[in-house]
Ras-related protein Rab (Salpingoeca rosetta), 180 residues
Amino acid sequence: MADDLEPDGPYKVIVIGDGAVGKTSIISRYALGTFDEGYKKTLGVDFALKLVERKGKQDVYLQLWDIAGQDQFSSLTRVYFRHASACVTVFDLTARQTFENVKKWMDEVEAKVNTSETGPVPAILLANKCDLKPHEVSDAEIEEMKERYNFVAWFKTSAKDNTNIDKAMATLVDHIKPTE
Ligand code: GDP
């Protein structure tokens, strides 16, 4: 089996979406196993390295890139998007505008990541903060967004309660690195 191979990668995974939707919290939950209630606005880019162990398949390193959504960092965005192998797009299920802005983020991916050499990279859509109520976006609307932008899948997640984060990321990894 592929179990005894060195880990593959690292693959660059960009985590995008509006400010305060939970990008940093998702990365921190996934890569470090922690959650922080306090909100620290991300300044520039942070990285986290995650070893994904996969039963019966080659392990994979992911390099998770976190960025501020703020426009004043736009000089960084080219570096941020460059050579990404996959994309995690996050919105806040309790803040409708962050869902509307998924379109804007995916247009950026379309323009800056999905070049003619690479073709489209796999992307997943995360409806985060599902532990909070009320939810301002319906499942049908999320499904429609998934179809429109060719997301490989969408998940309701909570970085706070650790809901669906590992499952969502495992789905993404399987699309970056299909089983040989
Ligand atoms: P970012 O700007 O997109 O990186 O957002 P952060 O990760 O900094 O999160 C913004 C705020 O939302 C912080 O106060 C987090 O503690 C909180 N938060 C993030 N994810 C969740 C979640 O799943 N549930 C709840 N209740 N709060 C969350």
User: Anything to note?
Assistant: Residues 19-25, 36-37, 39, 42, 128-129, 131-132, 158-160 surround guanosine-5'-diphosphate (CB under 6 Å).
